[in-house]
Amino acid sequence: MTKIHIDPTIYTGKPVDSRLSKEMAVYDLLDKIHIPYSRIDHDVTASIEDCYDVEKLLGITICKNLFLCNSQKTEFYLLMMPGDKKFRTKELSKQIQSSRLSFAPAEYMERYLDITPGSVSVMGLMNDKEQKVKLLIDEDIIKEDYLGCHPCINTSSLKIKTKDIIDKFLSYTGHIPKYVQLTGE
């Protein structure tokens, strides 16, 4: 496995260099609703394994975010779960009483969350104004004081208090999470 380059500087504000507007919109919203964050920049993270060094630097466990849909592609879900836990679609489908779930096609991810594959993040819910995406959170996530996520692009990672995501961010977006218990077995 090739190691990605990580800028070891931990920033506590938005970037001053040129970035994509969807990334800057995340920082602007976090500032607007008074959510403090730490941030590091890095090469593209193509997998959860690429995030392990990011985790160490930020002192967090990166949250795995999966964009899923039912077989009819009529129901869409964003699942937040610990990065080291295996995803078992049958286990989740049963808990939420859905037909078998699969990874949703990229065009839906871009349409509803303005995110491309590899950059899936709870932050994308700020773009889901019509509430097309249901949020599912593994209960192990809320046991952690902080969570790690991307600012809608996978060349930066954020450390944010879990409580701020639940109480402030989701209140702002209007998404009400459904909590699930995934064993990863």
Summed up, what is this model?
The protein has 185 residues and is α/β, with parallel strands linked by helices. Strand 2 and strand 3 form a beta hairpin.
Note down, in words, how this protein is organized:
- The chain is globular, with a radius of gyration of 16 Å.
- A hairpin with a 6-residue loop joins strand 6 and strand 7.
- 31% of the residues are buried.
- It has a 5-stranded mixed β-sheet.
- Helices cover 25% and strands 21% of the residues.
- It has one domain: YbaK protein (Alpha-Beta Complex), CATH 3.90.960.
- It comes from Clostridium carboxidivorans P7.
- One of its GO terms (molecular function) is aminoacyl-tRNA deacylase activity.
- Belongs to the PRORSD1 family.
Give the percentage of residues in beta strands: 15-25%
Q: Globular, elongated, flat, extended or rod-shaped: what is the shape? A: globular
Distance between the termini: 25 Å
How are the strands of the biggest sheet laid out side by side? Answer: 4-2-3-5-8
- Under the CATH scheme, the architecture is Alpha-Beta Complex
The CATH class name reads: Alpha Beta
Number of discrete domains: 1
What's the gyration radius in Å?
A: 16 Å
Mean pLDDT: 93
What is the CATH topology descriptor? YbaK protein
Query: What does the largest sheet look like?
Result: 5 strands, mixed
Q: What percentage of residues falls in helices of 4 or more residues? A: 25-40%
Q: Residue ranges: pLDDT <50 for 5 or more in a row? A: none
CATH H-level homologous superfamily name? YbaK/aminoacyl-tRNA synthetase-associated domain
The structural class is: alpha/beta
Report the order of strands and helices: HEHEEHEHEEEHE
Count of helix runs? 5
